Amino acid sequence: MDNLKDKILIRQAIKEDLPAINGILNYATMNTNYNLNTKPRSEHDALKWYEEHIRDGYPVVIAELRGQVIGWASLSRFREYTGYNTTAEISVYVSVNHRHKGVGTTLLTTLITMARGKYHCLVAVVTDNNWASLALHTRCGFIANTTFREIGYKNNTFIDITFMTKLLDD
Ligand SMILES: CC(C)(COP(=O)(O)OP(=O)(O)OC[C@H]1O[C@@H](n2cnc3c(N)ncnc32)[C@H](O)[C@@H]1OP(=O)(O)O)[C@@H](O)C(=O)NCCC(=O)NCCS
């Protein structure tokens, strides 16, 4: 298997990356139950999401291969209550043609490094049939805590969701 780890550039996302970021997200939305969006995210909502991340200091990073965005990852506010401010939720997406080549691992380890010193806990919210994501997060030190049975609903199916966490100060 061709590992892309040494061929990709990881950098902070800029506004011009948003169409590619959104394309990768929307492909997963429309073709899987791995996120619980049921409609593609509009360009307008993608810009709002990006600007809120910049304003609140939550990172969005991309993986670039020969000038093309092939994956992205972000930290986001976990919940609004301020008692959760030491926790951030992690998202990671790789384009379907570049999976299983180390890109997700590189994005995730980059964000974990960026999160150290700023957050105490990272959370990944993973659908229970998403073996690649469960394996990726486990490989990066996340622990599957609890599976919430049938908490989600998409494509006429109730979906189990596993919360995985990684404590950064251990
Ligand atoms: C989950 C995802 C980000 C993984 O990214 P990736 O670049 O394929 O991950 P890596 O190549 O770094 O692989 C990391 C580990 O994940 C596991 N993995 C990745 N793809 C896999 C697959 N198709 N089948 C089984 N395990 C897989 C492996 O354990 C792998 O480690 P290994 O290469 O030592 O076997 C990617 O599959 C993806 O974008 N999926 C759709 C979006 C999504 O589900 N995002 C997560 C939402 S919680």
What do you see in this structure?
- This protein is of the alpha+beta class and about 170 residues long.
- It has a domain at about 10-120: Gcn5-related N-acetyltransferase (GNAT) (Aminopeptidase, 3-Layer(aba) Sandwich), CATH 3.40.630.
- Helices cover about 30% and strands about 35% of the residues.
- It has a seven-stranded mixed β-sheet with strand order 1-2-3-4-5-7-6, sandwiched between helices.
- It is globular, with a radius of gyration of 15 Å.
Rg result = 15 Å
Low-confidence stretches: none
Structural class: alpha+beta
> CATH H-level name of the domain at 9-122... which superfamily?
Gcn5-related N-acetyltransferase (GNAT)
What are the distinct ligands in this entry? coenzyme A
Q: How many DSSP H or I helices?
A: 4
> Residue share in helices?
25-40%
Instruction: State the total count of DSSP E strands.
Output: 7
Largest sheet, in brief, is:
7 strands, mixed
CATH architecture assignment of the domain at 9-122: 3-Layer(aba) Sandwich
Query: What is the average per-residue confidence, as pLDDT, rounded to a whole number?
Result: 97
